[in-house]
Design a protein that fits this description.
Largest sheet of chain A: 4 strands, mixed
Number of strands of chain A: 4
Number of strands of chain C: 18
Oligomer: heterotrimer
Strand order of the largest sheet of chain C: 2-1-5-3-4
Number of domains of chain A: 2
Order of helices and strands of chain A: HHHHEHHEEEH
Distance between the termini of chain C: 48 Å
Number of helices of chain A: 7
Number of helices of chain C: 8
Chains: A alpha+beta (157), B alpha/beta (592), C alpha+beta (358)
Strand content of chain C: 15-25%
Radius of gyration of chain A: 18 Å
Distance between the termini of chain A: 28 Å
Chain lengths: 157, 592, 358
């Protein structure tokens, strides 16, 4: 871990970054922001850890817990809303057995997230599965895809 | 290999890629090679490139240009490519049934493109393509033959106003910044396009990033800035990638950096990625975010143009505003001012979405009627249902009712109607959309995006949402409507920044035009059958074939019935998920 | 200088003055919650809004710099109505348990609710509920009472330079807390407690010790070190129940953990009030046999005689430089002067030092 942190630090100094770009680099490398990583940078840069925490909790891009292997992002923009994104999300929650306040499955396979708008409104409703945009999604198509992702894992075992 | 002058353009914006653009492009490469034809397979960018030109609902769109004859295909999948190559490219017989139809042509007829004029005819990842369409000539002209003051005068005369929302005159902003006596000034391009239902800025950057960069060079020269930033949403990975490539190409070609084009002018641009906070589109919050802080706005005055990034004079312009600049310099202020209305000059790009047939990105002269946009460019409402309203201006905007569809679309008219041009989102709503639900949707958004700094926005939007929620659940109380209006007005008046000041607009405008819908909810009815808690689902026996589809789909076990006999929904068990309604092929499930 | 009118009164103030400060110079009262004169303006509570002629919406007077010819109105029915809405909104997300709140009687929010006569609240709704779990020894943090004015965050950063806390999360879920919502772990200077306008931050030692009406305030000087901060002891009966510091004195109301929270020794039963001499038998050079009575109480004369005789004995046997004197920062300058004089002339050594140097 320390090696990766050092690398991020070098990049940060080189590109005259700020706290946000630093946190983005940590998030990109580890998938989330751990307390250890934050405290490490706080010491190295002599910036109070509280400032890191304040900034990190402000922006919805940052996470404080590890996320699932598959990340499903549901777009909740206006166009997607009027085209039924909420029903897609409810269907996903049911399929993945997630309660209202959970976003990652217990086996760490799936994380379900909402995003405000990805700007692909013409092909609403939009779901992003592992960074690949799926337009004009329906519950059927979506559940099929989730099942095949689940299947991949079962075969892997 | 036979040499032919064939060009294939594949739409490769976010929409095109989502529809399989990469696969289609690969298929063309492979098929053309197999056929032994040398053609130029261009990666055609986003929604508004030739062929697609905004209509990404019909992706993947493909242009086949042979000689000077262009044919456009819609809904192309990779497995359709061999036939196109065989019949069209080799045998010169276009595949008629896959070609775009009349609606595609109608979509473009009423549009007028300035900002989007080169988007689509050029490869956004190739700087020579932009230079080939007179790109960077405006920047050259400005730096070699114009004084900063002349540039400002030209922009002022053009009447260009900020395209990010409020419509502040761009030239006036530059003039103030130009007059500031400071060694360090900044120019920021605001590409933090956060409005749900808006994607103009993403499309412009994906389609023609160099126009934005050129606009920034001209702006920086005019105000005397040597550092620029593009603050762009991280949710737009393709736009970020293309912008970064464009910046490094511009640097290599000497358009950015020290002593640009042999002049004494220095200017360079950095990219800053947003981290997921809508409020950072507000200029003081954006500045805080670039400085690496929480994106909490601060009170204005002092305005950023006096005291901005790191306390220095800073001009913040929206993507579309900046993309207009090179065209104004090249074609003259009079040319630009000849479009639009007296107070709203030029064109505006809108993202036309929702329940509309031709959903996509459009550019129209200011002052066009809403009706032309919806029925001529947009081709009317999906499923030929009735138009109910058009929501403009995103979460700070309002809903224009169908009865006012003849109105002119410009800054003043929209504000008069209780809405807002905003960044240019235009969501079409039909008779099946519940206006209270729409207001609630926007309040959910603004409430979640409130930074929490000021009381009216932090607690006020929360209370507004609570009142709306109980109305949509049929638990509204007497006096709720009046309370909603009163609190909306107070939040609007007392909030610190544009987010809070605009947040009540969706409520106020829907109350203004659709008061009866609110009243119906207070009586326990949702006239558009949207609000779950107010609905009852039942089976119309005369239509039910007893196929059992609804029974199998019901997650709550609320449906009973024997095969081939009418089924029954137990409203006591029904959780109103709508699964039966969706699955019934005979329209036998009714909700009201 | 900039000339402007506030409520039809004309005043000239230096450039850069805020409208709020200019109004205060004219003794015009504008309600505020988030503003603190020694901290940078925030503009979050929106109570200090005023109307500026020619500006369509009200502006916060705490953030708006004056400009030439400005015409300000600080109170209109519309402004008062907005202030009332803002106050009601704050109170709709506040425990409103003034009857048991430590801050009652000294709380700005309570006072404003009183002046605006707010009893019913039009905007009832969900309230933030937080577990009270901060395990630090000095500062009680009841974040449900926090109105997010940010004074504590700013004082910790701008005055104390510690940045132990910050705004976290956003919107209705905004919360001021230490990193990763851990227990507060800082210098415990309590500057945050001093500037908090509500009962969100109080001293743990203050709890249930008495109401404002029973308190006698006694101004004194802190005896912990030579800095000499002004203290105001809040005394109930014969007991100090809390300590504050006045903002108009030279230390501007800022204290350290000792001055602010280290007062409980005054009424401690373990406190020494008379001199004592060790009577336990000596085992070796630095150890004593543990017995029930280690010390015995003696008179000052006896104690001083004992010290004098011992010092003389050591000086006679090992010379004056075998003795060193270390003085306490709790002594006054005069006492410290006398002490070094005594060491140099009485004992005859320059071995003298002071704990403030260590």
């Amino acid at each position: 871990m320390e090696q990766i942190l050092e690398k991020i630090l070098v990049e940060y100094r080189k590109s005259e970054g700020n706290i946000i770009s630093l946190l983005q680099d940590i998030e990109d490398s580890f998938g989330y922001l751990s307390e250890d990583a934050i405290n490490w940078f706080s010491k190295k840069l002599d910036i109070p850890a509280s400032r890191f925490f304040g900034v990190a909790t402000f922006y919805s891009q940052f996470h404080f817990k590890p996320r699932g292997r598959n990340v499903i992002t549901a777009c909740c923009g206006t166009a997607c809303h009027v085209k039924g994104s909420e029903r897609l999300i409810n269907g996903l929650r049911k399929e993945l057995n997630l309660s209202e306040d959970e976003d990652t499955t217990k086996n760490m396979e799936f994380t379900l997230e909402k995003v405000n708008c990805v700007g692909a409104c013409s092909i609403a409703p939009v779901i992003i599965i592992n960074k690949q945009v799926r337009g004009k999604t329906t519950s059927d198509k979506l559940l099929k895809e989730i099942k095949s992702l689940k299947g991949l894992k079962d075969e892997g075992n | 290999m036979k040499a032919t002058n064939t060009t294939i353009r594949v739409c490769m914006g976010t929409g095109g890629i989502a529809a399989g653009g990469v696969e289609v492009l690969d298929a063309f490469r492979k098929e053309l090679e197999l056929a032994g034809i040398k053609a130029d397979v261009k990666k055609n960018c986003s929604m508004h490139k030739v062929g697609c030109r905004g209509l990404c609902a019909k992706d993947v769109l493909v242009d086949v240009i042979i000689g000077d004859k262009k044919t456009t295909y819609q809904f192309i999948k990779s497995d359709m490519v061999p036939r196109i190559v065989k019949e069209h490219v080799v045998e010169k017989n276009p595949v008629r049934e896959w070609m775009v139809g009349e609606d595609y042509l109608a979509f473009h007829e009423k549009q007028f493109k300035v900002v989007l004029s080169d988007c689509g005819s050029i490869d956004p990842e190739d700087i020579s393509a932009y230079i080939g369409v007179k790109g960077y000539e405006a920047a050259k002209k400005v730096m070699t033959s114009m004084k900063p003051g002349d540039v400002i005068e030209t922009i002022k005369a053009s009447g260009l106003r900020g395209r990010g929302g409020a419509g502040f005159p761009t030239g006036a902003k530059w003039e103030i910044a130009g007059k500031q006596d400071s060694k360090q000034k900044y120019l920021i391009c605001n590409a933090d396009e956060g409005d749900p239902g808006a994607f103009m800025d993403r499309s412009v950057i994906e389609g023609n990033p160099h126009a934005v960069i050129e606009g920034m060079i001209i702006g920086a020269y005019a105000i005397g800035a040597d550092k620029g930033y593009v603050y762009i949403r991280a949710e737009y990975p393709l736009a970020v990638e293309r912008l970064r490539k464009a910046l490094s190409d511009a640097r290599e070609n000497g358009f950015l950096g020290k002593e640009i084009l042999g002049t004494k002018f220095n200017f360079d641009i950095k990219v800053k990625l947003g981290a997921g906070a809508f409020v950072c589109g507000e200029e003081t919050a954006l500045i805080a975010s670039i400085e690496g802080q929480r994106g909490m706005p601060r009170a204005k005055p002092p305005f950023p143009v006096y005291n901005g990034l790191w306390g220095k004079p800073t001009v913040i312009n929206n993507v579309e505003t900046l993309a207009n600049i090179p065209y104004i310099i090249r074609n003259g202020d009079r040319w630009f001012a000849s479009f639009g209305t007296e107070k709203s000059r030029g064109t505006k790009v809108f993202a036309l979405t929702g329940k509309i047939k031709n959903s996509g990105l459009i550019e129209v002269p200011m002052g066009i009627s809403l009706k032309e946009i919806v029925y001529e460019i947009g081709g009317g409402i999906e499923g030929d249902r009735a138009l109910k309203a058009v929501q403009t201006g995103g979460p700070s905007g309002g809903c224009i009712p169908a009865a006012m569809v003849d109105m002119s679309v410009d800054y003043e008219s929209l504000i008069k109607a209780g809405s807002f041009v905003g960044s240019g989102g235009m969501v079409v709503l039909d008779e099946t959309d519940c206006m209270v639900n729409i207001a609630k949707f926007f309040l959910e958004f603004t409430q979640a995006e409130s930074c929490g700094k000021c009381v009216p926005c932090r607690i006020g939007t929360k209370r507004l949402l609570e009142i709306l929620t109980r109305i949509t659940k049929g638990a509204g109380k007497e006096g709720d409507l009046e309370l909603l209006e009163k609190l909306s007005k107070d939040v609007k008046a007392a909030s610190l920044c544009g987010l809070g000041q605009g947040a009540p607009n969706p409520i106020l405008s829907t109350i203004k035009y659709f008061r009866h819908e609110y009243e119906a909810h207070l009586e326990g009815r949702c006239p558009s059958a949207v609000c779950k808690e107010l609905l009852t689902y039942y089976v119309l026996e005369q239509f039910c074939k007893g196929c059992g589809a609804c029974l199998r789909a019901c997650p709550a076990g609320a449906i009973t019935g024997e095969k081939k006999k009418p089924h029954f929904i137990d409203s006591g068990i029904c959780i109103k998920c709508g699964a039966c309604f969706d699955v019934c092929k005979f329209k036998a499930v009714k909700k009201e | 200088m900039v000339k402007l009118t506030i409520d039809n009164k004309t005043i000239e103030v230096p450039e850069g003055t805020t409208v709020l400060d200019a109004a205060r110079m004219l003794n015009i009262e504008i309600p505020t919650l988030c503003h603190h004169p020694k901290l940078t303006p925030f503009g979050g509570c929106r109570l200090c809004i005023v109307e500026v002629k020619g500006v369509p919406r009200p502006l916060t007077s705490c953030t708006t710099p004056v400009s030439e010819g400005m015409e300000i109105t600080t109170s209109t029915p519309a402004l008062e109505d907005l202030r009332r809405t803002v106050l009601e909104l704050i109170l709709s997300d506040h425990p409103n348990d003034c009857m048991i709140c430590e801050k009652a009687g000294d709380c700005t929010l309570q006072e404003l609710a009183y002046f605006y006569g707010i009893r019913e609240n039009r905007f009832g709704g969900e309230r933030r509920i937080y577990a009270k779990k901060d395990g630090n020894p000095f500062i009680e943090r009841d974040m449900e009472k926090c109105i997010l004015c940010g004074r504590c965050v700013k004082v910790c950063d701008e005055i104390q330079g510690v940045e132990a806390i910050d705004f976290t999360y956003r919107g209705f879920k905004s919360k001021i807390c230490p990193t990763f919502e851990r227990d507060l772990d800082c210098e415990f200077c309590g500057q945050c407690v001093a500037v908090c306008p509500t009962g969100a931050l109080t001293g743990k030692t203050w709890n249930l010790r008495g109401r404002q009406k029973d308190i006698k305030e006694i101004d004194t000087t802190c005896s912990y070190c030579g800095t000499g901060c002004n203290l105001t002891l809040h005394v109930r009966g014969n007991e100090i129940i809390r300590v504050t510091s006045k903002e108009d004195k030279w230390n501007e109301g800022w204290l350290c953990v000792k001055g602010r929270f280290g007062y409980t020794f005054v009424n401690s039963p373990d406190r020494l009030k008379k001199p004592m001499i060790r009577i336990a038998p000596k085992l070796s050079a630095d150890s004593y046999q543990l017995t029930a009575n280690l010390f015995k109480e003696v008179s000052w004369d006896e104690a001083l005689d004992y010290v004098a005789s011992k010092l003389k004995e050591i000086k006679g046997k090992h010379g004056p430089d075998s003795i060193a004197g270390l003085s306490s920062a709790k002594c006054t300058n005069e006492e410290n002067y006398l002490f070094q004089k005594f060491m140099r002339t009485g004992i005859g050594t320059n071995n003298v030092d002071h704990c403030a140097r260590l």
